[in-house]
Amino acid sequence: MAAGLTLDAGALIAAEKGERGIWRYFKEAVGRGARVTVPAPALAQAWRGNSPQVARLLAGCEVEVMDEVRAKRTGELLAKARRSDVVDAVVVLGAVARGDAIVTSDPDDIRGLVAAAGASTGVIAL
Asked: What is the pTM for the complete model shown?
């Protein structure tokens, strides 16, 4: 399977607002058979109820669960990076594990976590 995309909460908010950039990246990934993933904590951070645009986007995504092992690894990455945003760290850990690029509205924080994870994951700023 082609390298995929991981979307953060900012990407979901961009979809809700109808911003074209997120849809361009999403359609390109789906068109080449890549997986698009949304970590459950990112969905929780962005979801505010009935959003047809986000629901449409989610229909083409895999929602990644957060279990005890992932929660502990997230805390470890936050400690290493000296950061506190759980959602950003979950996004980074999953993307690094899958080899995904990350679509985000917060590229500086994401890049800091990618560096702390010792990875070279691509970051796509919206």
From this structure: 0.95
Give the domains, in start order, of the chain with CATH numbers. 5-125 (3.40.50.1010)
Question: Quick one: pLDDT band at residue 103, thresholds 50, 70, 90?
Answer: very high
- The answer, yes or no, to whether residue 50 has pLDDT greater than 90, is no
Q: Phi/psi class of residue 118: alpha, beta or left (left: φ > 0; alpha: ψ in -120 to 50)?
A: left
Give CA–CA dist 126/121, Å, rounded: 16
| Tokens 């700023």 sit on residue | 125
The token pair that represents 5 in the structure block: 């995309």
Whole-number Cα distances in Å, 92 to 30, 49, 65, 74: 20, 25, 14, 9
